[in-house]
Amino acid sequence: MPSFAPGSGLTTTEAPFIEAAKANGEIYIEQPFDLYSADNHEAWRRLYAQMLPLWERYANDQFMKGIENLCLDPQRVPRLDDVNKFLSKLTGFKAKAVAGYVPAFRFFDSLRERDFPTTITVRRLDKLDYLPEPDIFHDIAGHVPMHTDPAFADTLVRFGDCAHTAAEYAQSIKDPDEQIRVLDSIIKAMARFFWFTIEFGLMRRPNGKGLSVYGSGLLSSAGEIAYSIDSPDCQRYPLQLEWVINQYFEIDHYQPLLFVADSFDHVFSLVDELEKWMKDGRLNNVAPGEPLVAEADLRSFLDAQVG
User: Fold this and answer.
1) Domains of the chain: which residue ranges?
2) b/e code 32-59 from CB counts within 10 Å (16+ = b)
3) Does residue 111 contact residue 52 with C-beta atoms inside 8 Å?
4) Pick from 80, 5, 65, 55: which is nearest to 35 by CA?
5) 27-302: CATH homologous superfamily?
6) What are the pLDDT digits (tens) for 16-57?
7) What is the C-alpha separation between 93 and 72, in angstroms, rounded?
8) How many angstroms separate the CA atoms of 86 and 88, rounded?
9) Measured distance CA(180)–CA(162) in Å, rounded
10) Cβ neighbours of residue 65 closer than 8 Å, sequence gap 6 or more
11) Structure pTM?
12) 289-to-78, 237, 285 alpha-carbon distances in Å
């Protein structure tokens, strides 16, 4: 790995350190904290200041407790080691730096081990509302506060269990063409469920007092968090497994349709049901459409060491 000057920057899509790591085939990396530039820290500061009042208005109570428990610095990009000192004591989870894309099975298997693959780059200072790919604000300020809640953390671990079940199921199919077809459908179902819960989930507040946000994609977007609760253009339906696994999504615009969970116990129970449907073959023919399943994701399940 070549050396990089302190403060040279870890800006999303513009970080030589990340490109070098990818060129070396690295997935898990160290967080080179001294490379963050003044602009990187300023981007974090502005994002945090922008989101805090929105979190206070729209976010789930568990998320707000998580923000408090993590002791995030509103002024500077966090060190993952500091985050993990608080996080691991609460649920055993750790934020683990990655260079970028993590194949699907490996991502879910990391959750099973209570490791959360975490992007370390920061979006451009002059494009704070545009997110070409996840950044550290999305992952640490959007995802990780929820990981401090035991019920939510256990739900993520169950996703990892489901990935192992999916790999075993797919590997048991003898016909190669049918194996790929079925696995594509199962991964699509898992991705859709994850998207409409962990990434873009809404939840009923206690005592019928409206809705709150627990999905990280909403919790890291100043525009979409308010849209998800207040806009008449957003459709909101009760979270049901058969609806979610057959609902396609697109990532380049506000979500026109979201699902509302009753509680974290509700989400957890549906992950159990997802695994049961998988074993029964009920995920073998979900509706076509987005997301497209990459070859690397299919291969990650077929090559997985399970059983």
Assistant:
1) 27-302
2) bbebbbeebbbbbbebbeebeebbeebb
3) no
4) 5
5) Aromatic amino acid hydroxylase (1.10.800.10)
6) 999 999 999 999 999 999 999 999 999 999 999 999 999 999
7) 16
8) 6
9) 18
10) 145, 148, 149
11) 0.94
12) 37, 20, 12
